[in-house]
Structures are given as structure tokens and as C-alpha cells.
Amino acid sequence: xxxxxxxxxxxxxxxxxxxxxxxxxxxxxxxxxxxxxxxxxxxxxxxxxxxxxxxxxxxxxxxxxxxxxxxxxxxxxxxxxxxxxxxxxxxxxxxxxxxxxxxxxxxxxxxxxxxxxxxxxxxxxxxxxxxxxxxxxxxxxxxxxxxxxxxxxxxxxxxxxxxxxxxxxxxxxxxxxxxxxxxxxxxxxxxxxxxxxxxxxxxxxxxxxxxx
Length: 212
Ligand code: GRF
Known about the structure:
The protein is an alpha/beta fold. The protein has one domain: Rossmann fold (3-Layer(aba) Sandwich), CATH 3.40.50.170. Helices cover 33% and strands 25% of the residues. It has six helices and nine strands. The strands form two sheets. It has a seven-stranded mixed beta sheet with strand order 3-2-1-4-5-6-7, covered by helices on one side. A two-stranded antiparallel ribbon has the order 8-9. A hairpin with a 2-residue loop joins strand 8 (201-204) and strand 9 (207-210). Helix 1 (23-33) packs parallel to helix 6 (174-197). The chain is globular. It starts with 11 loop residues before the first strand and ends with a strand. Residues 20-24, 98-99, 119-121, 146, 182, 185 line the site of 5-O-phosphono-beta-D-ribofuranosylamine (GRF).
């Protein structure tokens, strides 16, 4: 299957899903602000955590910031239906997960096939899931990094768009490693979004090619 974003209208509408501090959200806002990413607008930031600092960042930039409380729904599918409604209200075309601590379920994935991006702070397929930095340090690998990928129904398993590596140092802590990796995240996430918006990502099975 091949999928290229062939959006011809002026701006691609982005929804960013968050749960926490939102440093990746900030990097994306900044890259749109300085025109490194053109033809895109963040229409809404949605959080599943009421006091996520990412919501404050959104508000500071005049972006709608919405908290959807998962506890307010009987099950995941109810929550996802509400999420879909909000995404549709904002004419969302691209969903960017930026520190969103929930698995995106079938309902949303099938509505947005190959239009959901995620960033994970390891070189996938190593160290999927939670506590990535701890997993990395405990395993003793000498190189780590981050991965931007399309989201599929697995956990951190979708087709890989870009990766960037950093050394793991002998005296690294989870914090120091995380800091070194975040610097790279803030580069490759905006770049991946830019490529998506420019229609330069071609997906065939697991393989993502970057078109010239
Ligand atoms: C990042 O390390 C990202 O890779 C992971 O969650 C963290 C979110 O950080 N998915 P922030 O909220 O963007 O600062």
C-alpha cells in the first residue's frame, strides 16, 4: 500500500495529543512560528491529563487547549468516540502524539490511517513501551536515540520515518540520557512533520521512503 499526503489546500490542520510537559509540542509550535514548517496550523491541543503543562503552552500561543477526561467514559471506545468528535470539529488531518501516554485505539487509527505520528525516545524496535531510558540503561547499550514513526495498532511498532542516535555514556542517569535524546527529538519531530506536510513520505508496508 502506498500513501502520500497529497493535500492541495493551503494549510494542513494538526491536532497534538499530549499528557505532560509538552517540550515536543513547543518545538513544533516554534518550527511553525519560524516558518521552518510551512502550510500547517495546530488547530487544537488535546490532553488526557487535566494539569498537563502542554495545555498552558498551547494557550500561551492562542491554540485551543482541551482536556478530555478518560474517567468520564464507560470504556476506551467511548473515550475514543469523543476524541474523534473533537478531532472532526477541528477538521484534523494530521494527529501528532507528543508525550501522549495512552495507546491510540482502533476507532481513531482506522479513521486516520497513516496520518498519526508518534515519537519514542529509543531506537525502535528496541525498548518499546514505558520507562524507555531505564530499559536502555539497564540493558547496557552504548548507543540510543529517538524514533518518529507512523502509529499502527501495536505499541511503538508502526513504520519508521526518521531516527537520530546519541551515545550512552558510562555515568548517564535517566535524566542525563533523556536530556541528550530530547535535543534530537526536537529536531527530528518537526522535520518529520514538515516532510509529511510536504507530501514527501511514501509508505509501502513497513518501509517509509522520503521523496526528493
Ligand atoms: C518524549 O521523550 C517523547 O519521546 C515521549 O514522551 C516524552 C514527551 O516529552 N513519547 P514532552 O512532553 O514532549 O516534553
